[in-house]
Structures
1.
Amino acid sequence: MQGKGLGNKLTLEEAKKEIEKLREEIRYHEYKYYVEAQPEISDYEFDMLMKRLEELEAQFPQLITPDSPTQRVGEKPLEGFPTARHDPPMLSLENVYSYEEFLEFHNRVLKALPGEKVEYVVEMKIDGVSIAVQYENGVYSRAITRGDGFQGDVVTENIKTIRSLPLRIKEKRFVEVRGEVYMPKDAFERLNREREEKGEPLFANPRNATAGTIRLLDPREVARRHLDIFFYYIFIERDYPRATHWENLQLIKELGLKRNELVWFCRSPEDVLKIWDEWKDKREDLPYEVDGLVVKVNSIDQQKRLGATAKFPRWAIAFKFPAKQAVTQIVDIELNVGRTGAVTPVAILKPVQLAGTTVSRATLHNEEEIRRKDIRIGDWVVIEKGGDIIPKVVSVVKSRRTGKEKPFVMPRKCPVCGSELYRPPGEVIWRCPNAACPAKIRESILHFVSRNAMNIEHIGESLVDQLLKNGLIKDPADLYYLKKEDLMNLERMGPKSAQNVLDEIERSKSNDLWRLIHALGIRYVGEKTAKLLEEHFESLDDLMKADYNKLITIPEIGYKVADSIVHFFRDEHNLKIIEKLRKAGVNFRRLKDVEEGEKPLAGKTFVFTGELDSFTRSEASAIVESLGGKVSSSVSRKTDFVVVGKNPGSKYQKAIQLGVKTLNEEEFLQLLRESGYSI
Ligand code: IVH
């Protein structure tokens, strides 16, 4: 796919060979995309092929032929529908993928309009199919696909099924509005589910589904698929009615035509970048797919003076978001054992760029999924990054099969400890039943320290692996018994990093209760449920005592979760870990919720000496901190209170010496009460 960089000069012969290969490849992918609506490579990869061909043709203009893919605007219209011409032609947009490239566009615009102020309108680039819709005498009359930009298919009846499309508008002159037809994500998922049930091939994404739907010959079937539309251009009597794009968008709305409300007015390229940066991730939350921003010069007069090249307007650009889909090859299928013992197959991929990162693994979920999608080792596949961090395999590119691909057989033994796997009735996931399975232990420790659980920084995969390998820990609770010497004997661990790790572990002892509940790794108890449980139980001990009937009375807790919690706290192994955590001084109590900004002990420093009856040292520290106070380990003139328990140490004398205020346990409890903590 990658050609040689331009730095290496090719001979005419070499260039000719590469150009021919590129053209053949591009024609093939154009056919798959436009005619069959079943693309095998991502838009980005396609653009890269095209870019390389353009580069070579610029270097060797004598090799340009009229039938080169670079020499035309779009693709042939499809058969089966009457065709109509576009006036003016429907151009396409040039893509940029980075801010640098976007700035090049901006500078080109400035250069062509010397001394003028340029303002942009930014819109979402809807990942659908572009369409021109016409109204005559205020009545919907025709809809034409983009086709090759000059001529497209007349699909009036199919577009008419779109509920948001008005069939009458108040403007009586000849109106043409252009925009994007798309399939909302939920309609797309529903459609694919139905196709799956019927054993029909699935659509790789909503755009393909839209393209496929528009060319259906039966409008009743189109109607069932719930397409929708956003308009972004309006012509009246074949010209722009108002002086700026912004005002034209306004008119679209005034006429009752649907436009996307996500539009921005920008005075600088930095403003555009801000929107791009914000929406490259937030786009996941939209109910329809977008693949970038479209940035348009606002003034129609400036647009007209900027004009267009053979293919693209010079006054607009597509500023694409990082690609979510890519095509790559499965080199192998491995098994991953999770903390609950779930054994999931994982595809090992030829590394590929996707949404700004290099991806070399993708989840395959389970055996059923592999069978359903007919995924084999050696297959070329479309992978996609959705809301989750781990990409998934969307579909297999069957046309690239050579016959050498190997079907995957799910082993019946745990790949890590060799135990016989079992599959609970009605479930699709195989599990390793061995509580001592090293893979389960490793994952449970990683979960325990993770950001949304105990949030212990500086402990990642490699440290956990070293700790396990050296026998320093066997479960998460062992972390609290690590000594500095233990850590310092490990690779790449100096005294300072060792201390950092220990400080982080120490800090985690005063975490909120919900973090501990989540960290324990109870099946079906994620962060949200853990927070909910914290609302209903004051301490871990309370939760441990709760029986099924009590748990089930909490409205959001279902039987599956309740059952799982009860079982978790009956398990000997789990109870041992919990007792070890308690002994280490990990906070087991709910900390008083203090409203944001309301920190009655803010600015006060506390030192503890001796034992308290009501709390462990770390619980007391956690409470003080939750009320905004600070806890220190040594007494100085800056200390506000020294809390003195039974058998106090030298800190008590030091407090007297320095004249620092001391509190006995009762006084301390009184202070907490006064600060709004209920005991
Ligand atoms: S303007 C002359 N605006 O992107 C300018 N296009 O890659 C033509 N698209 O063919 C297009 N959202 O199908 C424009 N807000 C938007 C768009 C948009 C999606 C599509 C359209 C176009 C393609 C160009």
2.
Amino acid sequence: MFTKNRFTGNNQLDKNVTEKIISSHLIEGQMVTGDQIGLSIDHTLTQDSTGTLAYLEFEAMGVPQVKTKLSLSFVDHNMLQNDYRNADDHKYLQAIAEKYGIVFSRPGNGICHQLYLERFSKPGYTLLGSDSHTPTGGGIGMIAIGAGGLDIAAAMAGEAFFLEMPSITGIKLEGSLSPFVSAKDVILSLLKKLTVKGGVNKILEYFGPGVETLSVPERGTITNMGTETGATTSIFPSDEVTKLFLQRQGRGNQWLELKPDKNVSYSELIELNLSDLEPQIALPHSPDNVETVKNVEGLPIDQICIGSCTNSSLRDLKMVASLLKNRKINDHVSLTISPGSRQVLENLVSTGELLDILKAGARVIENGCGPCIGIGQAPATDAVTLRTFNRNFKGRSGTQNAKIYLVSPETAVASAIYGKITDPRKLENYPKLNMSEKMLIDDNLFIFPTTKPHSRKIMRGPNIKPLPDFLPLPTILTGEVLLKTRDNISTDDILPGSSEIMSLRSNIPEISKHVFRYVDSLFSKRALKKGGGFIVGGENYGQGSSREHAALAPKYLGVKAIIAKSFARIHQANLVNFGILPLTFISKQDYKRINQSDILSINVKDLKNIMSLTNVNKQNTIRVSLNLSNREKRMIKAGGKLAAIRSKQVDY
Ligand code: MIC
Ligand code: SF4
């Protein structure tokens, strides 16, 4: 499946799709793998649970209006209103949007990535979003990247987005999917090969004859979950299929053809024949723990959730409706469906397909993230829950001991009917979906900016606390190792989801009490008591979500540096943004030479690429590297990006 080329870069004339978009947005640096580049950003998006911080940061920059071509603020995560907190955040976000010229998507409109793909995506453009699944936009032929809120705020202020030029992996698709096998099975099988860190600092570019057999929403499923490989983003070409999608959205005039040139090469090549694929399933507790459904058939299940930004498009829910028609779900499973957008829901209503879903016994819940991040529908104790989502980290459902399996909508329906994990091919009579009915388009829940001056006061509920102050880096960092973690610690481990904790996203002092809550319940108290200290991590530290709270809350507790075997891209950038040093072991064996509670010390007067860390208890030194650009080093010296901006010491 894999071959590696020696990649010397494509010449000036022949470019792949990634290179075409990057070269037309390059403001700094050169398109050479590993070099720092600055990209101009056309569109930004935020969602509510990362958005409140992003806009507090944007306000601190003192810019009167957003400077992008388009900025959007969605409310889709914190939708349960158990008390005033989420509702206050929604009000704040709406007022900010009105003041700064941002499109506001009201609660109930749908999930940011689904809505963006339907209504705003544009081939050839760049998108930066404060959500790790922003690469969904790559399904239409954009460079769409997830980042921390502070990076989005800077992009809204007109600044470039800086990153290390990724290498470009070409994924050649041949053949076409068999009945009951769908886009989710494509990305699950790639995850099995690549693992949750195989995509770090790579862009996954799809090409080849199999591409035209996939619709834009199917491409979106693949680029969405490419995030789970750690990739910077994923991208498809923009072709006739893309044109049709845009035409059906009443946006045909925004189409632009974007294909790789004839003589391009990629740094790595993966070949995948779609015809060979079978239904796949990710087992607990990692999206790369993939098996064929056939191999785990028969396991009884308690709950099935269909939805999330991975699998809630009209294509997916039409498939669900067709498979459920004239059938009834098993008495021992609960089936929930959360449509990706109002457009999806309204179209299912108008064709009568929603009735097929309801009559089969599904519980239709609000258009939003919901169960995907533990906001409602937490399963029972020890339950087995099958989800069409993209992450199955332990505890993400809201129930710590539940077991989450990730599947396609087809496998979800078959399993709902039989009450156990079932290969969807057992359903027989594969439905032919009618995707050519007239598409209902409803933009009523978007509030578009006007040129009228903003008059209303920006309301900040009592749960919205000002951002903490950040001090410049001292000369010596010293303190105790507060925690030593395993490989692949996710940002969900660092700062969990769930309606309880997510409603504290605008309140750093309160949310910091939950840092590492399920890994080590005493962590936050210990960190405060010891006056902060260090964390030692394994491989891929900080994988998963873009939540900058996973850096900011530890910073608030006094965490000074994290020493890990490797870092996930977005989390490393967030650490730098908030002045925490991300140090990497040069020899991975050295991980064993530090224990929890050891006292460490490091002189950080000069931030060099290679530095010495002293383990005071063990009386030895360990060589660590600081893989940061000079710009990032300047920022960290100032106490992080916001501190640098506030003190106007360095550019951002
Ligand atoms: C997620 O899927 O983990 C989230 C919740 O959407 C996060 C954003 C957040 O934590 O608010 C993400 O993917 O970035
Ligand atoms: Fe929402 Fe889940 Fe998608 Fe994150 S992964 S944006 S929580 S639906």
3.
Amino acid sequence: MAGIKVAKFGGSSLADAGQVAKVCDIVMADSQRRIVVVSAPGRRQSGDVKVTDLLIALAEAALSGGATDKLLQQVVGRYAAIQQGLGLPSAVTVEIEADLRRRLAAGITERGRFLDLIKAAGEDACARLVAEALRRRGADAHYLHPGAAGLWLTAEHGNAMVLPESYARLRGLRDRPGIVVFPGFFGCTPDGTVVTFPRGGSDITGAVLAAAVGAELYENFTDVDSVFAADPQLVPNARPIRMLTYREMRELAYAGFGVFHDEAIVPVVRAGIPVCIRNTNRPEAPGTLVVPKRPSKGGEVVGIASADGFCAVYVDKYLMNREIGFGRRLLQILEEEGLSYEHAPSGIDNTSVVLRERDFTPAKEAQVMQRIREELQPDNVEVQRGLALVMIVGEGMHCTVGMAARATTAIARAGVNIEMLNQGSSEISMMFGVKAVDRPQTVRALHRAFFEERADAGGNAA
Ligand code: ASP
């Protein structure tokens, strides 16, 4: 039997009847797409509200004893429009409304538990609707409740994690006939309580199912043609990336590459299953394939990621290199102050640590600076705020001389001063710290240098 493809559709792919019709066409175009994971309907246009956000507002209203009817009608209205647009029986909407009312009437025992029960209704109703739409087109499609299927999660409401035994329990889905339509975003604790993943968690559901059934491919349908080599908002002509490795994806995602949360794909990474990011609105576009390994050639950069919101603490001390334990004590101060550091570029007599600005509040800064001065007796210590990190990433970077030169020359030509430079020890990335105001020029300059100037540069990009 041909392998299974798990196809996950995000909220924008399910926002209205027209989008759901596209989803049905995609699912039915490939008989290997036997497990379909759906989000709740998302925004239909800018300014619109996602069903999940409506449900959160509804739950909050119920929790505070306020009026719920208008919000409930808004949610039901979203599904009714899809049901009517697809010519499905009105009984589908009637049942969705009844289910939502039952959830609201379940009683509030605990805030997190109640919120999760209401939030989960978005994906649950959507899966029922999509299964119905597929059946209407003649497919043998069936909705499946995650709890009944065995998707067992920890009891952390809104932040659940998969329990390892889920994988064995879900493996049986492999042999189920027809198409399984599975709601994303939630599962159950072993005692049957509904719990949700963090926001955007339908990606996790899809990845867990793909790993559990040993899928041939995990397809993640969204509203972009592919992952781009740089943020298209900064570089309008950014090149699409056809293929990248898990490691490249992770390095890029870390520095603000927002296609999906890299942690969401951990289950498929562990299982070595390729992930394909594709566009529901243009299913003929090849998308981006994320794979365990790919052929790479020297000098190749696959993508450029960047993010604002960083700061650096610089510490200077003459003969620091001889002082055993200096680095450890510096990092220990950060650890004791509850700060996670991002990078630690260092020299002979100086070292620096890069932190996220949102964690390094002025009060924390005062405390950390005082401790460094007292405990490490440095010659100088200072903080620089308003930094951005720009990363170039590529498996082929480690074996190439001159990558840094090419990058720094490009940045210098753009008139940007590099505040900090770090080659990741994985050697598949190089990080440049620049002033946040210089981030757009830096990204553009690097894109030009690695993707536009030489035909052989960034050979992976289309
Ligand atoms: N509907 C949920 C959210 O908006 C989960 C998801 O779409 O993945 O966060």
